[in-house]
Amino acid sequence: MIDAAPGNGAAREAAAGRVVVVIPTLDEEQSIADVVRSIPRAIVSRVIVADGGSRDATAARAKAAGAEVIDAGGGYGRACLAATTAAEDADIVVFMDGDGADDPGSIAALVEPIRSGRYDFVIGSRARGRREEGSIAWHQLAAGRVAGWGMWLLYGVGYTDMCALRAIRRDALLKLAMRELTYGWNLEMQMRAARAGLRILEIPVDYRRRRGGNSKVAGSLTGTMQAGARIIATFVRVSSESSLWRRGRDRQRELPNVR
């Protein structure tokens, strides 16, 4: 379990708490309307569906269900970033997938620790939660564990998953200067959040079989390999940046002592 919360919590005020849910989509017409309708609107102010070029009725069904739809262009990370930019009035941004696998009932548990001012970033863990049979492949769980071990070695923060379902303070997310526009977005966020010293909490979340369509990642060998390659490339890139960042900080500390 992650509980990366520095002391002195009283030094930070509780977040105002306006919540916007972001759903990146690509050809999710079979599930998106039910996903949008199931989001708890007593907690959530806006739902933004960031569509990555769907060729089906995803956008129309999302609008009919009550979501705002933006044309984000191709790429999972690009869609997440575009919606984050559009959510100008948000204090907290919640990310979730549009295939019906993520449980909207977990949104309250993700948001509360941020609203209370105790945490900046709360991520769901499918590995620690209840999983419907057939909802997730063993290699997806293994990838989350391996990435978590790597981040523990780099930053001392050991995640157990790279679950899409997560909540973060919008201002904190913007300061992370996210760059990844594809499936490495989730991993990059976790790495940058750990490196930046954000107060991080991981909680178990339930996970279900997708409600329609085919998975862009696990649905085919090609999709799995492409996503895996992007995730590995993201880990290498961000960890390399981390090494340079650390050396720069160490150099700054040495400079005042130079005569």
Structure described in brief:
This protein has helices at 32-37, 58-64, 76-86, 107-115, 138-155, 170-175, 185-195, 221-254; strands at 3-4, 19-25, 44-51, 68-71, 92-95, 121-125, 166-169, 200-204.
Summary tags:
disordered C terminus, eight-stranded mixed beta sheet, alpha/beta, 8 helices, single chain, 259 residues
Q: Can you offer a commentary on this structure?
A:
By secondary structure, the chain is α/β, with parallel strands linked by helices. It is built from 8 helices and 8 strands, in the order ββαβαβαβαβαβααβα. It has helices at 32-37, 58-64, 76-86, 107-115, 138-155, 170-175, 185-195, 221-254, and strands spanning 3-4, 19-25, 44-51, 68-71, 92-95, 121-125, 166-169, 200-204. Strands 1-8-6-7-5-2-3-4 form an 8-stranded mixed sheet, sandwiched between helices. Helix 5 packs parallel to helix 7 and helix 7 runs parallel beside helix 8 (221-254). It starts with a strand and ends in a 5-residue tail after the last helix.
